[in-house]
């Protein structure tokens, strides 16, 4: 008896592709990355108390937990600490943090599905909701709690952009598509730098064994992913090496989908 033929449908668009990095380049990138993050790990090891979990904190708040530090003791401890390394403000650590930042960047490049409002409808909306009109004239600085100051005549006011692009996204996983945790990141990396004027964010996939070394360098239990912000101090050598040996992510299916052409159905 002949086996029953099974027909299944597949995604009609081209799949997202990311570059395959050789083991030699991965080793060099990992060394440069650890050298960049080492000052932050040394600071955490010397001046940051590692978390012991929620249950331990509850026991410490119990009445018989012993004397606790006063506000004065805490203030003295903070004053005795050296300043945090500058690289801390230019590195995103953790899968949730990197995903949230990439999603906010991608929102700028995705075309809006809402049709443009007609003049009469827009005026009617503004009359019904005056707060909408006021919000449209609020600058990004005022939205983030920064008061604007009047600039002298003839001077150019610098633009304020709290959302900086990412130069690199590092994943300690060689095949993001085979993991449900990392499968969304290649597409987000492409969307976050889809504008032609922006330098593309490069996705660096490292072997799984590199996570333990990164976690040890940062003095953290684990490191799911890392993001290096554009203009990070001391990262020029790392970024230049990656741009020389790693190609950008290819995501042609997004452009194919935006063209709204019938692609047919693939059967296998």
From TrEMBL:
It comes from Sporormia fimetaria CBS 119925. Residues 146-158 have a biased composition (Polar residues). One of its GO terms (biological process) is tRNA processing. Residues 123-132 have a biased composition (Basic and acidic residues). InterPro entries: RNase_P_Pop3 (IPR013241). One of its GO terms (cellular component) is nucleolar ribonuclease P complex. One of its GO terms (molecular function) is ribonuclease P activity. It comes from the Eukaryota. This is Uncharacterized protein. Residues 48-71, 106-159 are annotated as: Disordered.
């Amino acid at each position: 008896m002949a086996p029953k033929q099974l027909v299944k449908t597949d995604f009609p668009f081209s799949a997202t592709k990311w570059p395959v990095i050789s083991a030699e380049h991965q080793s060099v990138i990992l060394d440069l990355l650890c050298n960049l993050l080492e000052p932050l790990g040394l600071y955490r090891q010397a001046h940051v108390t590692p978390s012991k979990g929620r249950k331990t904190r509850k026991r410490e708040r119990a009445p018989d937990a012993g004397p606790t530090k006063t506000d004065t003791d805490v203030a003295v401890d903070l004053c005795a600490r050296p300043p945090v390394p500058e690289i801390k403000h230019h590195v995103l650590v953790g899968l949730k943090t990197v995903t949230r930042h990439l999603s906010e960047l991608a929102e700028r490049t995705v075309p809006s599905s809402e049709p443009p409002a007609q003049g009469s409808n827009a005026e009617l909306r503004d009359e019904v909701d005056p707060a909408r009109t006021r919000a449209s004239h609020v600058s990004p600085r005022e939205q983030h709690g920064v008061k604007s100051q009047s600039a002298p005549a003839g001077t150019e006011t610098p633009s304020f952009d709290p959302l900086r692009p990412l130069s690199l996204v590092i994943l300690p996983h060689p095949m993001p598509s085979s993991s449900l945790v990392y499968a969304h990141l290649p597409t987000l990396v492409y969307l976050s730098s889809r504008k032609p004027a922006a330098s593309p964010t490069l996705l660096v996939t490292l072997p799984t064994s590199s996570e333990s070394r990164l976690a040890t360098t940062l003095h953290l239990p684990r490191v799911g992913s890392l993001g290096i912000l554009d203009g990070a101090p001391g990262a020029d050598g790392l970024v230049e090496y990656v741009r020389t040996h790693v190609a950008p992510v290819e995501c042609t299916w997004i452009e194919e989908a935006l063209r709204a052409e019938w692609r047919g159905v693939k059967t296998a």
